[in-house]
Structure formats: C-alpha cells, structure tokens
Amino acid sequence: MRIVFFGTPEVAVASLAETARHHEVTGLVCQPDRPQGRSKRLVRPPTKVWALEHSIEVVQPEKLDDRTFETWFRRQQPDICVIAAYGRILKQRILDAPPRGFVNMHPSLLPRWRGPSPIQAALLCGDEVTGVTIMRLTQDMDAGDILLQEEEPIQPDDNAITLASRLAEKGAALLVRGLELIERGIAVWRPQDDSKAVYCKLMRKEDGRIRWSEPARKIHNLVRAAVSWPVAHCLFRGEVCRIHKTSLVEDARAGTPGEVVSVSDAALVVAAGDGAVAIEVIQMPGKRAMRIGEYMRGNAVRNGEVFKDI
What we know:
Layout: E1 2-7, H1 13-22, E2 24-29, E3 34-36, E4 41-43, H2 46-53, E5 58-59, H3 67-76, E6 80-84, H4 92-95, E7 102-106, E8 112-114, H5 118-124, E9 129-136, E10 146-153, H6 160-184, E11 198-199, H7 216-225, E12 232-236, E13 239-249, E14 260-263, E15 268-271, E16 276-283, E17 290-291, H8 292-296, E18 307-308
Parallel strand pairs: 1-2, 1-6, 2-5, 6-7, 8-11
Antiparallel strand pairs: 3-4, 7-9, 9-10, 12-13, 12-18, 13-16, 14-15, 15-16, 16-17
C-alpha cells in the first residue's frame, strides 16, 4: 500500500522502519526541527533522521491548515496513513483524504491513558502492565475503534526510556500485522468503552519537581517517568539538582522529609514523607549525570544534609 507516515520522536522510528519495510512510504510528516540545549542548536526529529537516511521525502509543516501542505499531501495519493506520536491534531479533511483512513500506533492499552504522554503516565501511576494499541484515528483524542492490542509488563526498574524502547518495537510489529489485515480486507474493529477512558496530559517542566513530603514510591515513580523530560529535580546545597535514578529502600533510618539518612558509594538514602528513596544518579548544574560514588569523590555528602523542594 502507498502510505504517508506521520510521526516525530524516537518511539515512532521503529514503526516507520517496519512500515517502510513492508509498504511504499511516499513521505514522512514530522514536526519542525527544534532548538535544544544551551546552544539552541536546531535538532532534527529522530524520524526525520531515519527517513533521510533511507531516501524518504520529509515534510515539516509549521501549520497543518497550510494549503501548501495539503496540496502536497493529496498529491501523494496514499491508500492509508500511519501515525505514531506525531504530536498534533489533524483536521477532518486530512483524515478523510486517504481511502482507508488513518491508523494509529498508541503506546498504551486504550482506553487507559488517552493523551500525549501515556508511557510517563503509566509509570507515574505505578501501573504494572501497559501495552500498545493499533486503532483508527478520529478527531476525538485516541477514541477511535481498536484493531489490535498487546500487553507489556512494566518491570520494577523500568523508566520512560527503557519502557518506550520495548513498546516501540512491540508497537511496530503489531502495526505491520494490522496493516496486513487492512490490506487483505479482513480487519475487525471494535469500539472503545468510553466509560473506562483515563486521560493524561503532556508533562511540563514544573511537573518534575520533587516534593519530599510525598511518599517514597510516588517520588521514585516520578524519577522513572521524568527521566527524559523534564527530569525530576529539587534543591541541594542551594542549587537545582536533577535526579536520574532512584530505588526504594525498606527499613531506612527515620528522618525528616528530604534528610540524608545514609551515605554510601552506591547511593544517598533520603527520607520521604513515607519511606525513603536511594538516589543513585545525580546531576548538578553545569555537570553531567554521575553515579553517587563518582559524585562524592569530589563532593562529600554527610548524614543530616537536606534535599529541599523548589
């Protein structure tokens, strides 16, 4: 089938690659290059990098109501379109253009975690199972009929990066199966139960703030979910520090929320509102992320020091 693929971040690359391996992808639509880091250097989306390496045309419209984009899109004459984490809502006239519509690879078990950050939401909530859904795209957010679903257990040491990697691979394989069913005319769709819908929102920078009065498990889940963005953060020694990895600690010595109650080369154990977390990887301003043992070689930490809320 002729396909135009819509997708932007790393989680969409595997789906793009598998789709291109089995079908004719005539073009990739992704978001524009964005400035990143202190240098504000423009960075290409991961899907664009892959597409250019494989001689697939890339289009990056600033606005989807741009007639230039719509003219290009209709000229492709796609049989069907695939979307995976594109990051924008499409107009109905675009959705209606391909004869077989749009099919979406969504990294959750819909109707749970409709919205833009289902992987982070599952980790924040402490879910033990998530998965991928192949569904029909409609104007209502992630509410279209379901074609295929497959579960994926969330491991205790998973974070947003490791979980997204597995879901990307699983979603790509499931997407190709779904496209085959559609091409053969034997796809069976089922409606979602809207009464069971749970929504998530895009994580903002302030959503990464650690509140040390909260339970240790909630803090740990925040660190896992925010590892890519916005990275869990708080104050330490008067500076904003970013915490990249933690683990839960049982039977830690009691302390006030944020207080360092144990120090070792492996971790700093910090009291929370209920329980304690072990900080294993930390990043101070202007420095790279370091394991605690490496950090403490030049920055000794003592029991009784306090991590504070921002």
